[in-house]
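Entry 12.
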Amino acid sequence: MTAKFHIGIDLGTTNSVLAFAPADESEAMIAVLPIPQITAPGTVERRLSLPSFLLRFEGVVDPAFIMDGFRAPFGVVGEYARRIASEQPDRVIAAAKSWLCHGAVDRTSPLLPFESESPELRLSPLEATTAYLMHLVDAWGQQFSDAPFSEQRVVLTVPASFDLDARELTKQAALTAGFPEDFVFLEEPQAALYNWIHAQNDTWRKQLKRDDTLLVCDVGGGTTDLTLVQVTEENGELELSRLAVGKHLLVGGDNMDLTLAYVASQLFASKGHKLNAWQSTSLWHSCRLAKETLLSTKAPSSVPLNILGRGSKLIGGTISVDLDRTIVESTLVDGFFPVVSLQDRPVESGDTGFQEIGLPFEPDSAITKHVAAFLGDHLHKTPNQRISHLLFNGGVFNATPFRNRLVQTISNWDESSQGTLSVLGGIEDLDQAVACGAVYYLWAKDHGGIRIRGGTARSYYIGIESTGPAIPGIPRPLHALCVVPHGMEEGTECAIGNKEVGLRTGKRARFRFFSSTTRTTDRPGQLLKEWDENELTETPPMETELAATDSPGLVPVKFESRVTELGILELFCKSSRTNESWKLELQVRSTD
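Predicted 3D structure (tokens):
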């Protein structure tokens, strides 16, 4: 069926947003969906964002927490869960998105709430993510019953640095929640830039010129995402091309909340109150609310932090301190956005043999150092190349002091940029930018609007073992088949056109991949029987077992390749004899 709407969803660490626009309009008329959610027992209100918090229950759920028309197999999602987190941290799941991309744990096992000692309360990061997406799907269905969610065109945004496993788990959660099978992913920084383009209408071409370089700095609740975009020109028209994305950085608003919790704990200690582990977690959630209040426009000079005694329901069991705004600003601005030089680098992780299991936060919280390292790796190796424009995204940058400090720091790195670093503005709400940008991305695909291009920086090859008699002590020669040419656009695919190659199925096999930054003219299907050792670099091999067929031995296949918007090489091995197909996936962006 023809979709009536384009839908964009920002699945955030702290808040999630759903935006939409009619698919057949000549202009992108983007709106944000008000999301019904429980704000107090028995009270349902509509909010423009859904806090990514989940309140768990033991036993039968109180009817006051049941919403008509909403699936809630895991508990209460949204504003009430966020509010109660400071009082009952062992029953509220937070930061599920950060856990979903934590490769050192089993993300399908019951881990959350991490502070809970009750197995009945715990869920997996995958289940928590499913709960948030279910609520968004049901909110859509309640307000657009004549346009089923599964029949619309949907974009779900993820961090640019999401690894392959996190992407697949997010996809699994989305399909379980009721997404259409053909929904697509889009990187959050790209979505933010699409939103800025939409906000400028056609005037963006007057603000940018050829050879300008944009830095999208996205600091959200859980992660920091960095993306470089260059302005190019083709046939007299400006084009946008993504140059590079940063690595996964688990530093953001959550780290700031933890920092404030530490500062506040010292204030409690000065009053003779030493907090236990449960109270410290409660304080962390309280500091999240305090930070948002004290860094907002027209903020008060201080806010009280109230902590209940463990298990106490009496106000007399509450202890309290006042958190001053000046302390918050100085602690967070200097701690997370210190003035550093372009040569400064983040502190590496320690060498302690045993570490507590938990989220793998960056050992260095200085976001400005991470920006310096990113630019040093991808930009400043080229003479005279510098940042000309800066685009902020993420809830952290709703606070003016953070924006001002980052602009000051980047400007100091290049004397020639003093006073010329341009901040791309005109965005009313950074919390809604990613979801709205995702909608505009779909609209631009359908109506011929500007697209952000991001061709691969390397050519990619698969290793094919040659045939021939065995020679003692000498391995059979390895050939390299080009499956992705240099500059292949993400979101595109191509048939390789190779001769049939034997594919081993039904038993564990080792698949070898290579890449090259120098062989820029090789075409898909080109077979290299010999190459200089400096021309190709082998990536980590993939060891897996592909599903067996009824036919014994090697299966003759041809290849098709696709590079997704997330920089994933999908290699389809297709048998022309049985119509069967196998897919191998490789993250290609991490080596760019």
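Annotation: The domain at 253-336 is CATH 3.90.640.10 (Actin; Chain A, domain 4). The first strand starts at residue 5 and ends at 10.
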